[in-house]
Write a structure and sequence with these properties.
The complex is a heterodimer of chains A (174) and B (793). Chain A has 174 residues and is an alpha/beta fold. Chain A is built from six helices and seven strands; from the N terminus they run βαβαβαβαβαββα. Chain A has a seven-stranded parallel sheet with strand order 1-7-6-5-2-3-4, sandwiched between helices. In chain A, helix 2 (47-56) links the parallel strand 2 (34-38) and strand 3. Chain B starts with 47 loop residues before the first helix and ends with a helix. Among the domains of chain B are: 48-212, Helicase, Ruva Protein, domain 3; 228-382, 3-Layer(aba) Sandwich (Rossmann fold), CATH 3.40.50; 392-455, no CATH class. The radius of gyration of chain B is 28 Å and the shape is globular. Chain B is α/β, with parallel strands linked by helices and 793 residues long.
Chain lengths: 174, 793
């Protein structure tokens, strides 16, 4: 059993299933309206390239924190939308919100590169309150997120190459 | 007590036998200084209507920190998946209940602090008159607003404290199992606790200002040194920690009376430090709460004296570790020590200097002050040979011992800092990665408790960062206290019209996502842009640690007036009541609104007109929860750092729901669709780069005039481009007409409005033909309260 990246972050009786990258990629692929939510840590270790690769697969990207600057610098803003993580969670929970493209809400949210603890709270908010209709959440981050439905396991920063390979595998399966 | 009405009549006293007559307090007829408003000393439900106005627009958003409830023996109850607990409470209400309890803890801390101060100072200085000087007529805006009382002497705060204590008890009662079941009503109660907190803070700060002659709104309050490097270790050092300044005042007085000012260092951590320097500029500030463990571990302190709040619960263990005696001076934090309050000073000094007891309780602040000064002179000599910082050899041994396992320390660290990698680099001779952890580390020590190799990680980081620590020397203007009425007269109009684009109130604790420098960056950015930047508590301290290229700190570079482009240290946590006070004074002085017992009207005024935004970037404690709730209830939004998500609740607007953004025009009662201003009441940002444009966005108000809106829009757009690389996607909704557009970029913005947002634009005439939510109306009298329409009729 995986432990939360912040060891005290055990919120309740149900915790995320640790999933292989192939399964995570397929979950994104099989969703009708998936959304990739990225945070400021994608500006480290060239992770933004992976986010862009996912964006190029047609998955819209919610750029939280100041990650937008990374997309601007990389010259990729095609389906990248500026938002705050708190605002985004509030919007996803709302039946009135019609998404970034104004055509409807999302049925799957994948997180990558956010600060661990705020992302964890983002996920737990959606787990408990984005229920009508249900929005499924997965983590493709280097952290195990127990509040997600499926999550990658913890991958230490000293194994960043391994993490990038994991992301490549996720991307291949989208 | 039932009221007994006795009709005027002749009473034959001689005829009475065996009757005891008790005469209660004789009420003096109060001067009718202002018409009493509708809600003096409001109870739990009296401001519920106002709370619901806020909650309808800024709906509570919950992110449970725990999905279970373990409050009673019915539980534990699993609240996930829409399940209710055994008592019938659901997830949302449980989160709101928890927030209410957190706010009550915070509110109790400030109120009890005020009560404690009053008891002590009435004994020490007597019942002093409240005279705030010629610049201040509204001496206690929150007290007037909430209770309807105009305090003239210190004892006038007694009924205010009685009101606070009764309300706290009533609110706490509501959190008992089997009572309130509505999350919205719990939110209203959390707001109530927040409002009480603001009142408790004002009472506490005014008591200490009056009792100890602290600065009364002095824009030119003196500068003092701050930082871990500013303490002279060659002298005996008394370290004071906490929030209640009375014992520290006694230390300064004893030193002064005995000619020891230059021979002993008094250095403080947290708000006691700020308040001690308000009393005597001989004292120094080590820094905020995040520096506590590191400074104690450095061994510089020869005596540690603690009072209340924000002290490490293991302070006795830490003090023992460095062989420094501990003096506990407040009954809220006794640490299992023997109460020596009634012992002679000579005996206590002997006990502490002999090491027979590691610390003592002394609840008489004057005695505690004398003991601290006498003990420190002896322990300093005894401790001279002690070395508390790791030696080079020890350091090397520890970092080499680390296996970079990443198994324990990194998952124990609240920041997830890469300690193992840094140790590995240090083992190879590069200490820079370890030193770089010093500032983002919050100084909790969880890492070293779980290290399999028992490496004292806090000490290792401290050793690696010693050159930085020694050079950490900033300057801070001592807490000036309230904003002057005369300053409000000057800035009232530009603030309400928007030409001073906002008040940025940086408050709160040191639980930052990435170190102290973020607070400096935020303050600097807004000061440069001519916002009014006010700071209190840990935020005020941490912003003082950095210097610009000319070697100046923010407090040296910018004036301390309450005006655009100024940076003010208002004071300690309790002083941030004066930030509420400034907003209330704008309503009272500039708009001539009656404030007495008139909370909802004044909060409505502030919400719609005063472009202020709180920033609690390192919010950590329950006090920060109550502070934010109090600020929110009075109509001021707050941005918190990412750790703030853990408070479980935010208040977020939904700008795409039109009906949420309708207010009345008080002139005729018509409903007006407005832009989302301010958009949120309580919202977190992940990074300072995200926070800065967000703060600017939350300074918009419906009543901005065109010049004001131009200024605010300019900053919002610039800041978004600077920190996020793009213009914000919602800027257009704040445009009411071409006059709102910044002149320098008017053509560019008109083109964007036409091409990207489909607005009707006459580019040649530079006119907006269609698109805005509403037109600018200079006479617009925005209000959320129906009763204010009637009043105008």
């Amino acid at each position: 059993m995986e432990i939360p990246f912040d060891i005290g972050n055990i919120s309740g009786p149900e915790n995320a299933r640790v999933a292989q990258p192939e399964a995570l990629g397929r979950a994104i692929k099989n969703a009708k309206r998936p959304l990739l939510v990225v945070g400021s840590e994608i500006l480290d270790d060239s992770l933004i390239e992976k986010a862009i690769a996912i964006g190029k697969k047609g998955i819209p990207i919610a750029a939280t924190a100041h990650s937008m600057k990374g997309f601007v610098d990389a010259g990729y803003t095609e389906n990248v939308h500026l938002t705050g993580l708190h605002e985004l969670a509030n919007n996803i929970e709302s039946r009135d919100w019609m998404g970034f493209d104004k055509t409807g809400g999302y049925d799957l949210v994948a997180v990558l590169g956010g600060i661990y603890y705020s992302t964890s709270q983002f996920l737990i908010a959606l787990k408990n309150f984005a229920t009508d209709p249900i929005v499924r959440c997965i983590s493709i981050d280097r952290y195990y997120h127990p509040a997600a439905r499926m999550s990658s396991g913890n991958i230490s920063r000293k194994h960043t190459d391994e993490f990038k390979k994991m992301l490549d595998s996720v991307i291949e399966n989208i | 007590m039932e009221e007994l009405n006795i009709a005027p009549s002749k009473i034959e006293i001689e005829a009475l036998k065996n009757v005891v007559i008790n005469i209660g307090g004789i009420e003096e007829e109060e001067e009718e200084w202002e018409t009493m408003g509708p809600t003096p000393m409001p109870g739990i439900a009296d401001l519920r209507n106002w709370d619901y106005k806020l909650l309808e627009r800024y709906k509570p958003f919950y992110a449970p920190y725990c999905e279970m409830c373990c409050f009673c023996t019915f539980g534990k109850c699993d609240l996930t998946g829409g399940k209710k607990g055994a008592c019938g409470l659901g997830m949302a209400a449980q989160q709101a209940r928890f927030v209410t309890i957190a706010c009550l803890i915070g509110c109790s801390a400030h109120t009890a602090h005020g009560r404690h101060l009053l008891r002590k100072v009435l004994k020490i200085v007597g019942d002093r008159e409240i005279n705030m000087g010629t610049g201040i007529n509204i001496e206690a805006p929150l007290t007037r607003l909430i209770t309807g009382i105009k305090p003239e002497k210190l004892s006038d705060f007694i009924p205010v404290l009685e009101y606070l204590e009764e309300q706290i008890a009533q609110l706490l009662d509501s959190t008992h199992t089997g009572q309130e079941g509505s999350n919205l009503d719990y939110e209203s109660k959390a707001y109530h606790a927040g409002m009480l907190d603001s009142l408790g803070k004002e009472v506490a700060d005014l008591i200490q200002i009056v009792a100890f002659d602290l600065p009364k709104g002095d824009p030119d309050a003196p500068l003092v040194e701050i930082g871990m490097g500013c303490v002279d270790e060659s002298k005996p050092v008394i370290l004071v920690i906490g929030h209640n300044v009375v014992p520290s005042v006694a230390v300064m007085d004893y030193m002064s009376d005995h000619g020891l000012d230059e021979r002993i260092e008094v250095a403080g951590i947290c708000c006691t430090a700020i308040d001690t320097t308000r009393y005597s500029q001989k004292a120094k500030i080590v820094g905020s709460i995040g520096r506590q463990l590191r400074f104690v571990r450095s061994g510089v302190a020869d005596v540690i004296m603690v009072d209340e709040q924000c002290i490490r619960a293991d302070i006795l263990e830490q003090a023992k570790r460095i062989h420094a005696p501990l003096i506990a001076t407040n009954d809220k934090a006794l640490y299992g020590l023997v109460d020596r309050t009634n012992d002679s000073v000579d005996d206590i000094v002997a006990i502490l200097t002999s090491g027979k007891e590691p610390g003592v309780v002394i609840l008489d602040p004057v005695k505690a002050g004398e003991v601290a000064v006498r003990v420190v002179q002896i322990t300093h000599e005894k401790r001279k040979e002690l070395v508390n910082i790791l030696t080079d050899e020890e350091f090397k041994e520890y970092v080499t011992m680390c296996q970079n396992c990443d198994a324990n320390c990194i998952v124990a660290c609240p920041q997830g800092l890469p300690i193992g990698e840094a140790n590995k680099a240090a083992a190879k001779g590069d200490t820079a990665p370890l030193a770089s952890l010093f500032d983002p580390c919050v100084g909790c020590g969880r890492c070293e408790q779980v290290c399999k190799k028992h490496i004292p990680i806090v000490d290792v980081i401290l050793k690696a960062s010693l050159p930085y620590v020694k050079s950490e020397k900033g300057m801070i203007r001592v807490g000036r206290g309230p904003v002057l009425d005369t300053e409000i007269r000057k800035v009232g109009a530009p603030l309400v019209l928007g030409t001073i684009p906002g008040i940025i109130a940086i408050v709160g604790c040191g639980n930052y996502p990435n170190g102290t420098k973020d607070v400096y960056r935020i303050a600097k950015e807004f000061a440069e842009r001519k916002y009014i930047v006010v700071l209190t508590g840990c935020g005020a301290m941490d912003a003082a640690l950095y210097r610009d290229k000319d070697g100046k700190t923010l407090y040296e570079k910018y004036p301390g007036d309450f005006d655009g482009g100024c940076v003010l240290n208002i004071g300690s946590c309790v002083s941030n009541a004066h930030i509420h006070g400034a907003a209330i004074k704008v309503a009272a002085i500039y708009a001539r609104r009656n404030i007495r017992g008139n909370y909802a009207e004044i909060a409505d005024y502030i919400l719609n007109r005063v472009g202020a935004c709180g920033v609690a970037w390192g919010a950590m404690s329950q006090k920060a929860a109550s502070i934010a709730s109090g600020v929110n209830r009075i109509g001021i939004p707050v941005v918190i750092g990412p750790h703030g998500w853990k408070y479980r609740r935010a208040y977020l607007g939904r700008k795409y729901v039109d009906e949420d953004w309708v207010v009345y025009d008080a002139r005729d009662g018509s409903k007006v669709q407005i832009e989302p201003a301010p958009e949120h009441m309580l919202v977190a940002a992940d990074t300072y780069q995200e926070a800065i444009p967000l703060i600017a966005r939350l300074c918009f108000r419906p009543t901005d005039n065109s010049m004001g809106r131009q200024v605010k829009l300019t900053h919002y757009m610039d800041l978004s481009m600077k920190y996020l690389g793009v213009y914000p996607d919602d800027w257009h909704i704040f445009v009411r007409g071409e006059a709102d557009l910044p002149l320098a970029r008017k053509e560019e913005y008109l083109r964007i409005l036409k091409e990207e947002h489909g607005w009707g634009i006459d580019l040649e005439a530079k006119k907006i033909l269609s698109g805005p939510v509403r037109k600018m109306d200079v006479g617009f009298d925005a209000t959320n309260l129906e009763e204010l329409i009637k009043k105008n009729e």
